[in-house]
Write a structure and sequence with these properties.
46% of the residues lie in helices and 15% in strands. The protein is an alpha/beta fold and 892 residues long. The chain has a seven-stranded mixed β-sheet. A six-stranded mixed β-sheet has the order 8-9-10-11-13-12, with helices on both faces. Keywords: CBS domain, Hydrolase, Magnesium, Metal-binding, Nucleotide-binding, Nucleotidyltransferase, RNA-binding, Transferase, tRNA processing, tRNA-binding.
Length: 892
């Protein structure tokens, strides 16, 4: 990344930074004088303006896009240690030998990074911690530094009124005064008069506030909603706390597309930092906040109640509720033996453990084991088809952790582990029986077998072209009129949530999909192409928009790698047949529920965590092309392949599933990969899984091929930015690179495996020959210093794919300049003379026309006939000089 700044040491903080975070960064810069400050941004407008107008210039902050993150060897994080809160520098954590220093005043969490140096103490602010370190080292601050650092301390201690304030905070402020801190400056920013909008919102907060008695503790919850972001919502919550003498407050505000949660606690019974951390936020026991994007206010409130009931004086622990002793399956048992054991004891799932160590390897579901046996895989080890990660709890854990795993993550049972051994289990049935008598409300977002209550209508309206949004509205109205339920599904919904353009519209109806497609086409003036075997249809509108319509169905596979057999089913079963959770989303279109998001399998969570996760453990056995799709999606969205999904891919590779696929299906997936922006990364991942050699033993990815493919990617991206009409066949360019240096008979062998047509195979070989010949002629032309026209006629004979491959293969400046000039200038130059002009001179139509026009083009390109008059004059001379042309012709 030549245009990005090399930064061996960077200092950064959490997203949505507050004054304490900004202050801590500036203080840390005095401890690390050579560090680069990377500010992640803030939602508080006053802080953003302050930062832009002052701090950016004074302290030389950088945006993360300006930094070459691969160059970072030391990461200094302040005011947080949670990895999930510094996603803007997530790439840095992959750097080898990375050293992390942390300065933080928040309590420990499971998501904390492992740091080598730094200071973590429970003081009122992180700025205080750094002040004491600066004092120790005898550092002198200037007035601007003292003011900004002081601002952080005043804000996070509530001007020394929060019960989290410590003597060290006062000592730090005293030192800052000696360094020139201006308390008037601090007061102007901390103590501000409320605007009329803020006063109105505060009134609404007071009116909507409700007090709930939760296990003897009074908790006030207030909810407001506003279309626009309101500055200093935390300030309003703090004022409400003071005005009403509240001990525990949770203020929830829906602003734009997210919910802001601000929490304050004046009693030790409620740790608001711990509760906000469960929503992806942070803070400490007395003051915390969270910004929640993927849930409705109702879902947030329900989950908040469950957390409060769990964390306030929890009365029951897992040890009192678990079933014991558990029925276990030993990891050296076969899948058939495991299925028999679960049948005997009537189990829907069971833990699989190491017979020697007792370590839990995972959970095996009875349904999956039975299905594997039906596929003839009963002799495979029981560990091959464990689904999901092995989430377990200790016996002293509280109930909410179990709810999170069973209801939130969909794990059928939770092993209870003590000293490395499974001593009991809590099943879904156990949990339901407990919750019948449990007064705590179950979070709606964790309820099993239900659609999530999130509505994305506004997101659809804002992120889709108007024409596409209207199609969805019309489809929903038609479905209502004919008594069906219609849904937009799959990757179309995934990309809306990711805010990625995608006009490939897929609809599913609970009813006759083909009949619905015909109704839709008639309504919108389109035509229908039906596929009765799969009960699907394509509606093609006059503007070229395609709408795929399917009947809600469940697919099952008669044998591994087979094409699917289709049965009618519901939308849930239709989504379950899909490949990955992120593609198993739907949005209801019928007017009564338009925009309601359907997420049975945790796709929103996986999108948030940036992970590709397969829906069931036999997915790659039933359709091995999903392995290539997993790689393609992971690289397209910069996601990772989940741990269990990775293991299942490797298992499918060991079972030698790829050779069972037809060449056409493999080539189809490869063709899609070659269209991706990060195709080379996909090929690297395929090599790591040994997919290339599984497709054909002659397919490799050597360092030389990698370098060539990387150049192809650069050239392809450069060509795309030219916005020319002609589009290259990317698969051909990439295969030329993969085939580079390979004998012709080996190329034909690979082409045969991929089931390429004779025409496609011939095109590849011809293009390779043409490119090599052009390379030779180009070198001779450059050596002679030949005219521009010769370059034009030389390259004119080479297809676009060959030109781009040529440019990639010979990464020399002169070559790039010449080919660039041809593509961007020469190729588009038109003569001012045509055959009509030659006919007007009295020449008979025939081969002479082509020869004269070629001579004219050469003269134009070489600067000898640049205007119409010069070209006409030259054409007349050529028509009279038969020896020059080399053809016998005469005017009439």
């Amino acid at each position: 990344m030549p245009n990005r700044l090399k930064a061996p040491t960077i200092i950064t903080t959490h997203m949505n930074a507050d004054f304490d975070a900004l202050a801590a960064m500036i203080a840390a810069s005095r401890l690390y004088p050579d560090a680069t400050l990377v500010f992640p941004g803030s939602q508080e407008k006053n802080l953003r303006n302050f930062y832009i107008q002052s701090a950016m210039y004074m302290f030389n902050f950088r945006g993360v896009k300006e930094i070459d993150l691969s160059s970072v060897s030391r990461l200094v994080v302040v005011d947080t240690r949670q990895k999930s809160r510094v996603n803007h520098v997530a790439q840095v954590f992959e750097n080898p030998n990375l050293v992390i220093d942390a300065y933080d005043h928040h309590p420990n969490s499971e998501d904390d990074v492992v740091h080598r140096d730094g200071i973590v103490v429970n003081w009122g602010s992180t700025a205080t911690i750094l002040c004491h370190e600066l004092m120790k080292r005898g550092v002198t601050l200037d007035r601007d530094e003292a003011n900004i650092i002081g601002l952080g301390i005043y804000e996070d201690t509530g001007s020394f009124t929060f019960n989290s304030t410590t003597p060290q905070d006062f000592a730090a402020a005293s030192w800052l005064l000696s360094q020139g801190m201006d308390v008037t400056f601090i007061a102007d920013l901390i103590t501000r008069d409320l605007s009329s909008d803020q006063i109105a919102l505060l009134n609404t907060m007071l009116e909507s506030a409700k007090t709930h008695e939760i296990k003897g503790v009074s908790v006030v919850i207030t909810e407001v909603s506003t279309e626009e972001y309101v500055n200093d919502f935390a300030l309003l919550a703090h004022k409400m706390l003071d005005m009403e003498h509240i001990h525990v407050l949770f203020a929830l505000a829906r602003m734009n597309d997210r919910i802001q949660m601000v929490a304050r606690s004046r009693i030790p019974d409620v740790d608001v930092g711990l509760i906000c951390a469960s929503f992806g936020g942070g803070g400490h026991a007395a003051a915390a906040s969270a910004s929640i994007k993927d849930r409705t206010p109702s879902q947030v409130k329900d989950e908040l109640f469950a957390l409060l009931y769990s964390h306030i004086n929890p009365q029951q622990v897992v040890r009192q509720l678990m079933s014991h002793p558990p029925i276990l399956i030993e990891s050296d048992h076969t899948t058939a033996q495991a299925s028999e054991t679960m049948t005997r004891f009537g189990l829907k799932a069971a833990p699989v453990v190491d017979p020697k160590t007792g370590e839990c390897k995972g959970i095996l579901e009875h349904q999956i084991a039975d299905k594997a046996v039906s596929h003839g895989l009963g002799s495979a080890p029981a560990t091959d088809y464990l689904m999901r990660s092995n989430a377990s709890v200790p016996p002293d854990s509280d109930l909410y952790n179990v709810m999170e795993i069973i209801l939130g993550q969909g794990q059928r049972l939770v092993p209870v582990v003590e000293d490395g051994h499974v001593i009991g289990v809590l099943t879904r049935t156990d949990l339901i029986n407990i919750l019948i008598e449990e007064p705590a409300r179950i979070p709606e977002s964790l309820l099993p077998e239900r659609m999530r209550e999130r509505n994305v209508r506004i997101m659809l309206r804002d992120r889709l072209p108007r024409e596409l949004f209207n199609i969805l509205l019309r489809a929903g109205e038609l479905a209502r009129d004919v008594g069906m339920e219609a849904y937009a599904v799959g990757g179309f919904i995934r990309d809306i949530l990711l805010n990625t353009p995608n006009s490939d519209l897929d609809l599913v109806v609970e009813g006759d999909g083909i009949a619905f497609a015909r109704t839709l086409a008639q309504s919108m003036g389109g035509r229908v192409r039906a596929h009765h075997k799969f009960r699907t249809a394509v509606v093609i509108l006059e503007n070229g928009q395609r709408i795929d319509v399917a009947t809600a169905r469940l697919e099952y596979y008669e044998y591994p790698a087979a094409l699917p057999t289709v049965e009618l089913s519901s939308i849930k079963m239709d989504l379950y047949r899909r490949d990955f959770t992120i593609n198993a989303l739907a949005v209801q279109l019928n007017p009564a529920n338009f925009g309601k998001l359907v997420d049975f399998f945790g796709a929103q969570r996986d999108i948030k965590n940036r992970v590709v996760r397969v829906l069931h453990s036999l997915s790659f056995v039933e359709d091995p092309t999903r392995i290539l799709r997993a790689i393609r999606f992971a690289k397209r969205y910069n996601f990772r392949i989940g741990g269990q999904t990775d293991r299942l891919i490797r298992n499918a590779m060991q079972l030698d599933m790829i050779p069972k696929l037809s060449g056409s299906r493999i080539f189809h997936e490869l063709n899609l990969i070659f269209e991706e922006e990060h195709a080379v990364d996909c090929l690297r991942q395929m090599r790591d899984y040994r997919l290339l050699e599984a497709i054909h033993p002659l397919l490799t990815l050597t360092p030389a091929q990698e370098n060539l493919l990387e150049e192809i990617e650069k050239v392809r991206d450069w060509y795309r930015l030219l916005y020319l009409d002609e589009k290259p066949r990317n698969w051909m360019i990439y295969l030329l690179a993969v085939f580079n240096g390979m004998p012709e008979e080996d190329i034909l062998s690979v082409c045969t495996r991929l089931n390429l047509t004779k025409r496609q195979s011939s095109d590849i070989l011809t293009l390779r020959t043409q490119t090599n010949e052009t390379v030779y002629r180009f070198k001779m032309w450059r050596h002679r210093g030949g005219p521009v026209s010769e370059l034009f006629f030389m390259l004119e004979m080479l297809p676009l794919e060959g030109l781009l491959f040529f440019m990639s293969r010979y990464n020399q400046e002169e070559v790039r300049k010449s080919l660039s000039m041809y593509l961007t200038q020469l190729k588009g130059m038109e003569l001012d003379v045509s055959g009509r002009d030659l006919k007007g001179m009295g020449l008979e139509p025939g081969p002479l026309y082509g020869e004269i026009l070629r001579k004219l083009r050469a003269a134009m390109l070489d600067g000898q006939a640049t205007c119409r008059d010069d070209q006409l004059a030259l054409a007349r001379r050529l028509a009279k000089d038969q020896r020059y042309i080399g053809l016998d012709a005469a005017p009439r």
